[in-house]
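Researcher: Checking consistency across runs. Here is BTB domain-containing protein again:
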Amino acid sequence: MTESQSFPDVVELNVGGRHFTTSLLTLTKSKDTMLSAMFSGNYQAIKDQDGRYFIDADGDNFVYVLNYLRYGELPPSNLATTIYREAVYFGLHGMVEQLELSPALLAQIHRETYRAQFTGYHKIINSILDRIKECSTKNTETTTSLLIVLFAKTKKRKLQNFDKNHICFSKSKNRPERLSDVTFGPWRNKSTTEKDVMNCVTFDLKEKGFNITQEATGQCGFKCESPPENTGESMVENCTHLCYTLTFHWWKM
């Protein structure tokens, strides 16, 4: 059995290299937290070479954790998402609940719920990033453009010879034909349009720091004609998938 560890009333801490002095009462004030467990005496807390109790966390962020324990004070609103991670890490349930009511966290939770309706949404972001990395090793221009093809639902085809596995492409009078770089769809919520998804993709890429613009370039140019042996009236069926050009501006940061 491990012998219980005792702590002084005033505790010296080393949190990620930053030093703090606080009371044992403050550290154990909130029950069922990592800190209260660490300084309960039931576990062997490790010390650094100078005898300070070591906590493997971000020292700058720990300031706000300590202020919450001391005064019940929350961090500035612009740091809510950053300190939320620390509150979860240290098991500060009261702080977590209060931070989840902040505008930044509510917006984050809403965006995650919104994205969840698109099965494989994060894969499309990764596919775009993989494709842009591939293109950037060959591109000598100041911008890089990708053709993103989206479709909210799968349409039942009228022509039996319509190739469902065709590669979508964009075709217009003033531009050369361009094949799809990334194709995505369908998704559960049919009221969410292709434009809505494209706006979500653009927002998330901008959040990562990219300078990008998007442009709707119309429907896919693929079409299928009824076979020659068709004895009825000839018919042409077009692909209804929508195309968007996503342009990365490398010289506008």
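Researcher: Does this match what you'd expect to see?
Model: One thing to look at in this run: The longest helix spans residues 121-136.
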